[in-house]
Amino acid sequence: MHMLEIPRPYLIFIGDNPEPLDVKTGLGILEWRPDWCMGQYRFDGGCDLGLRDFDPHAAAAAGAATMVVGGASFGGKLPPNWEAAIAEGIEAGLNVASGLHDRLHSRPHLVERAAAKGVRLFDVRSLPPGFSPPVASGVRRNGKRILTVGTDCAVGKKFTALALERDMRAMGMKATFRATGQTGVLISGGGLAIDAIVADFLAGAVELLSPDNDADHWDVIEGQGSLFHPAYAAVSLGLLHGSQPDAFVVCHEAKRDQVLGYEAFPTPDLQACIDLHIANGRRLNPDIRCIGVSLNTSQLTPEARAGVLAAVEERLGLPCVDPAVTGTKPLIAQLTA
Amino acid sequence: MHMLEIPRPYLIFIGDNPEPLDVKTGLGILEWRPDWCMGQYRFDGGCDLGLRDFDPHAAAAAGAATMVVGGASFGGKLPPNWEAAIAEGIEAGLNVASGLHDRLHSRPHLVERAAAKGVRLFDVRSLPPGFSPPVASGVRRNGKRILTVGTDCAVGKKFTALALERDMRAMGMKATFRATGQTGVLISGGGLAIDAIVADFLAGAVELLSPDNDADHWDVIEGQGSLFHPAYAAVSLGLLHGSQPDAFVVCHEAKRDQVLGYEAFPTPDLQACIDLHIANGRRLNPDIRCIGVSLNTSQLTPEARAGVLAAVEERLGLPCVDPAVTGTKPLIAQLTA
Fold it and tell me: According to the model, what pLDDT value does residue A250 have?
C-alpha cells in the first residue's frame, strides 16, 4: 500500500483568507474531524475558525504534526507570503499538506528543507511520489463497501459518504470513509485523488484504496463525477468497478435540472441513474443494490423539504434523506433489510 | 489540434528480428498502408518483409520521410544496436517513430541530434510533447462516427476498424480510421494512444481525435478494452462518450469464453454487450445503434465458420462477419438501412 497517510494532529493554515467560505477544506476538517484540529495559524486579517491561534513553532511545541493549507488561494497559486509560512512550518518540524494547484514539490527550497528536517510534504492533488497503481485484478475483497454516486458533480457525494461513516459509527458499526478527491483526502488524512490517475490504472488504484477488511466492516467510498457526465463518466466507471460496491447511494441536488456547465444535458431521472449503475456495477459485484437517495435540499424552503423527500421515497420505494438535515440512518437501515 | 501526424513514406526498421511475427507493426503497416512503405532496413539475420532493402542514407536519398520501428524488442527496451541505427536514421535526415516502452525522448543524444538535424521523434506510446487534452464539451460534431467495441481486449477492434475503412472507401464512401492505440497510430500515421491519458481528460481527447467533418464523412474509431473488462472499462467508457458514435460494431473472438487473464470473468453475451453500450452511449448520442458483430473466427475450422456466423445473425437479427474472411460490407449496408 502506498496510500497517503497524513500525520495528525493538524495545524490549520488560514493565511490571509478573510472569509471562512474561502477556507473550505479547513472548515471541512473541523466539521468531520474536530479532534484532529489542534489549532489555526493565520495572518493579520485572516478569518477565525474558532480554534486556538498558534505560530508554527508554538504549534510544534504543543504537539502538532502537520500544517494543512486550509483554504484556496487566487488561481491555486502559492503566494510568496504563504510560501514563507510553509517554510516556517518546515523549520518548526511540521509536515505540510496542500491541495493547491501550485505544488509544494515544485519549490526546490521547500523540498530540500523538508528533507533536511526529516518532515514530509503532501501534495494531495497529485499521486504520492513513487506511487504507481497496479492494473485491477477484479478479485473480490473481504468486507463490505458502499459507494456514493451522483447525477452530477458537486451534489453531495463526499458529504454523504462522511455522514454515512459518522452515523454508522454512532450506531456501533465498523465504517471507514475512503477519500477519492483532494478535499476528502485532507479531511480524512488518507486516500487518493483519483482524477490524477491514468485511465488504465483507475480501477486498480481504487482496489488498493479499499483493501480486504473484516467481514462486518464497511468502507464508505467517496464517489466522483457521474456515469451521466459528458466529460467525467470514465472516472465514475473506474470507481464503480474498482469499488465493487455491495450498496450505493444516489446523490442529487434538488432543483439541479441540468449538469453544471453543460446546459444541453439534463440531470438524469433518479430511477434511470439507479438502473445504469446496476447495469454497469453488477459485472464486478452481482449483488450490487441501491439503498436510497441522498438529496441536497439546500435550494428548497424548509417547508417544501419534507414533501420532496417523501415524494422521492414514494416514487422509488427507497429511503430518501438529506444528510445535512435528517441524517442517513434510513439508508443504513437498508443494509440489514 | 495537436494529434500526431507522422510524415510519409516510411522506412520500416526491422533490426535483427528474425521472425516476421515479431515485426507485427511493420506487417500491419504493410497490410493496411502498402503505398506508404518505401523500404525496409534490417541487420544480418533480420527477417524479410518483401520490401526493398535500404540503409537510412540510401532511404533518405530515395525519398523516405520517417524510419518506423516495426517490431518489438525484448522487454520493450531499446537495444544498443537499435539505438545506433536510429541515430544513423537521424543523421540521414529521417524522422523516427517508435512504440517501444523505452522512449526515444529518454535518450538525450537522440533528442539533441534530432533537433540539430531538424527532424522529429515520435514516441507513440506517450502523449505528444506539449499536448494537453481539454475536458470534454459533450457538443455534437458534424459528420458521422462508427466505434468498434469489444467483449474483451485483443478481439479484433483495430482490425475491424481498418477493414471498415478500407471497404467503405472501396464503396466510394468518405471514411477515416482514427487510431487510439500505439499500433494503430503507427499503421495510420496519426491518432493518439489514449491509454496514456488521465481519466478526467479521456473523453476530451477523443473529441479532438474525431473532429467536425463533412456530413457524409465517417470516422471509424478504434475501440479499446471493453465495458465488461474488470480493469479497463473506464477507458472504454471515455472512448464511447467522447466518440458519440452513431453506430458501433461489437467485436468478439469465437471460443473466447473468458476474459484474457481474468478467468473468473466470462466474456459477455453479445446481446448484453449491445445493450450496455446503448445504455451508456445514448447519453451522448441518443441515436446510437449497433450495426452488427465482427467475429474473429481464427479459432474455428473453416467448415464451422459459416454456421457460427449465421447462428449469430439469426440470434441477434444483425449481420455477423469475420472481416478477415468475409469483409465488412454487410455491416456497412446497415448504415443506410
Answer: 98
Q: How far is A9 from chain B (nearest CA, A)?
A: 32
List CB contacts (< 8 A) between B276 and chain A: 279-280
pLDDT surpasses 60 at A1: no
**Of all residues in chain A, what percent carry a pLDDT higher than 70?**
99
Is the minimum CB–CB distance between A324 and chain B shorter than 8 Å?
A: no
Judged against a pLDDT cut of 70, whether residue B2 lies above it is answered with no
- 3-state class (DSSP) for residue B278: helix
Q: Could A198 and B196 be called an inter-chain contact, meaning their C-beta atoms sit closer than 8 Å?
A: yes
Start-end of CATH 3.40.50.720 domains in chain B? 4-123
* Residue B337 near chain A (CB below 8 Å): no
The answer to whether the CB of A73 falls within 8 A of the CB of A83 is no
Say whether pLDDT at B52 is over 60.
yes
Q: Is A283 touching B (CB cutoff 8 A)? A: yes
- Which residues of B fall within a CB distance of 8 Å from A279? 275-276, 279
**Topology, domain A4-123:** Rossmann fold (3.40.50)
Cell numbers given for B302: 473453416
pLDDT surpassing 60 at residue B116: yes
A299-325 pLDDT, tens per residue?
999 999 999 999 999 999 999 999 999
pLDDT value of residue A3:
65
Interface test with B, best of A141, A283, A284, A285 (most B CBs within 10 A): A283
Listed in order, the ranges of chain B carrying CATH 3.40.50.300 are 144-335
Is CATH 1.10.150.530 what the domain over B144-335 is classified as, yes or no?
no
pLDDT per position as a tens digit, B247-275:
999 999 999 999 999 999 999 999 999 99
B237 contacts on A by Cβ (under 8 Å): 227, 233-234, 237
What is the three-state SS of chain A? CCCEECCCCEEEEEECCCCHHHCHHHHHHHHHCHHHEEEEEECCCCCCCCCCECCHHHHHHCCCCEEEECCCCHHHCCCHHHHHHHHHHHHCCCEEEECCCCCHHHCHHHHHHHHHHCCCEEECCCCCCCCCCCCCCCCCCCCEEEEEEECCCCCCHHHHHHHHHHHHHHCCCEEEEECCCHHHHHHHCEECCHHHCEHHHHHHHHHHHCCCCCCCEEEEECCCCCCCCCCCHHHHHHHHHHHCCCEEEEEEECCCCEECCEEEEECCCHHHHHHHHHHHHCCCCCCCEEEEEEEECCCCCHHHHHHHHHHHHHHHCCCEECCCCCCCHHHHHHHCC
Interface test with A, best of B201, B260, B277, B283 (most A CBs within 10 A): B283
Residue B196 with chain A: CB contacts under 8 Å: 198
